[in-house]
Amino acid sequence: MSPTHLVLPDYVQSGLRVLFVGINPGLRSAAIGHHFAGHSNRFWKLLFESKLVSEPLRPEEDSRLLEWGLGLTNIVRRATPGIDTLTADEYAAGRNRLITVVRRHRPRLVALLGVTIYRYLFPSQDRRPMSLGLQAQTLAGTQVFVLPNPSGRNAHYSYRTMLEVFRALRKEAGA
């Protein structure tokens, strides 16, 4: 099976403190079968340095997030080199699937990894300026927290800013 057709597993269970939601897997993640595996992706480092997890993790340990009450899924399950080839239909289907997951498992917070995801989930908010952090909008009755996208392709935020927002998430999640 080619990496673009490999579907990474969701790590979701009831009682999560935080459900992290990515846009879609990158090609390296799909190739090795683990989330946030791009060489320049800072997700795992941010989790540890923000104290959301108590030890450094590698992408190959993504299933261990559940040990800390953290879960992981993506809006679109198809791997791509970037988000420019994702379709509106894929985002719509992903939104519906995410709502189903949130209703079923009721995480304390849904943490969106990037403003782009927020804009697709809440299109009526598209033109309004927004900030990172806790949002007024909810998803299936669950609070939404927007984090910077940790991809190395994201040059919008410094590492320091990213870490501050991940730390704010930790506090909001009650850790």
Strand content: 15-25%
- Gyration radius (Cα, Å) is 15 Å
Count of all domains = 1
Name the average pLDDT. 89
Total strand count, please? 5
What is the CATH architecture term? 3-Layer(aba) Sandwich
Your description of this structure?
The chain is of the alpha/beta class and 175 residues long. It has one domain (3-172): Uracil-DNA glycosylase-like domain (Uracil-DNA Glycosylase, subunit E), CATH 3.40.470.10. It contains five helices and five strands, in the order E-H-H-E-H-E-H-E-E-H. The chain has helices spanning 27-32, 43-49, 88-105, 115-121, 159-172; strands at 18-22, 70-74, 109-113, 133-139, 142-147. Strands 2-1-3-5-4 form a five-stranded mixed β-sheet. The chain is globular, with a radius of gyration of 15 Å. The relative contact order is 0.21. The mean pLDDT is 89.
Could you give a short description of this structure?
The protein has 175 residues and is an alpha/beta fold. The chain has helices at 27-32, 43-49, 88-105, 115-121, 159-172, and strands at 18-22, 70-74, 109-113, 133-139, 142-147.
Topology:
Elements: E1 18-22, H1 27-32, H2 43-49, E2 70-74, H3 88-105, E3 109-113, H4 115-121, E4 133-139, E5 142-147, H5 159-172
Parallel strand pairs: 1-2, 1-3, 3-5
Antiparallel strand pairs: 4-5
Give me some keywords for this one.
Uracil-DNA Glycosylase, subunit E; alpha/beta; single chain; 175 residues; five-stranded mixed β-sheet
